[in-house]
UniProtKB/TrEMBL annotation:
Residues 1-79 form the GST N-terminal domain. The keyword Transferase applies. Residues 85-223 form the GST C-terminal domain. This is Glutathione S-transferase. Homodimer. It comes from Nitrospirillum amazonense.
Length: 223
């Protein structure tokens, strides 16, 4: 059985989970705590980062972007999440990188990293300055989502794509904390509501960490 080594609040693992579901590829989930740096896990990915995909035949693919590219190429019969036109594919990749790099550095790491990952890994106390930066930065990104959603059906164009998945994967981890100011960004909220209603995304909303439950609205498809 295909296996994805993941952690419930890793946005990169969440992205790959949605991609697998959109492509209708069955997978078993294996939880890993990357901060433990187990030898068995480092043998799968020496970088010590999640997620890692293990195929039925034992073939291993590490790093979220590499996994998504692999799934596009290995399963061409499944729905494409990059688009079929060359310019659309470039825009999808640009926006996916925007959220996986820029949003991750400016928001995810400052909120999820400081508030939850440090707590569970025992790697120190949260930095108040970093948290304040994350709470301030998220407005800029929600404004950008609203700008894109106002001009296109989905973030990259008329088709649901990896760009939407990457953005929603990161936002879902922030929403687990209750730190997304949805009421101040109704256009972004409407876009995210459409994502939450997709069957591929709903399993993420069922993830709960012991001792750190999400807010009540987290799994509510209508907020």
């Amino acid at each position: 059985m295909r296996t994805l080594v993941h952690h419930p609040l890793s946005p990169f693992a969440r992205k790959v989970r949605v991609v697998l579901a959109e492509k209708r590829l069955e997978v078993e989930l294996e939880v890993e705590k990357p901060w433990e740096r187990r030898d068995e896990f480092l043998a799968l990915n020496p970088a010590g980062e999640l997620p890692v995909l293990i195929e039925d035949d034992g073939a291993t693919v590490a790093e979220h972007a590499a996994i998504c590219s692999y799934l596009e190429e290995a399963y061409p019969h499944a729905p494409t999440l990059l688009g079929r036109e060359v310019l659309l594919r470039a825009e999808v990749r640009r926006l996916a990188a925007w959220f996986d790099v820029k949003f991750n550095q400016e928001v995810t790491e400052n909120l999820v990293g400081e508030k939850l990952i440090k707590r569970f890994s025992g790697s120190g106390t949260p930095h108040a300055q970093a948290i304040r930066a994350g709470l301030a930065n998220i407005h800029y990104h929600l404004d950008y989502i609203a700008y894109l959603a106002d001009r296109r059906k989905w973030l990259a164009g008329n088709e649901f794509s990896l760009a939407d998945i990457a953005a929603a994967a990161h936002l879902s981890t922030i929403d687990y904390l209750g730190d997304v100011p949805w009421d101040q960004h109704p256009e972004a909220k409407d876009w995210y509501m459409r994502i939450k209603c997709r069957p591929s995304f709903r399993p993420l909303l069922g993830d709960h960490l012991p001792g750190a439950p999400p807010p009540k609205h987290y799994a509510d498809l209508d907020f």
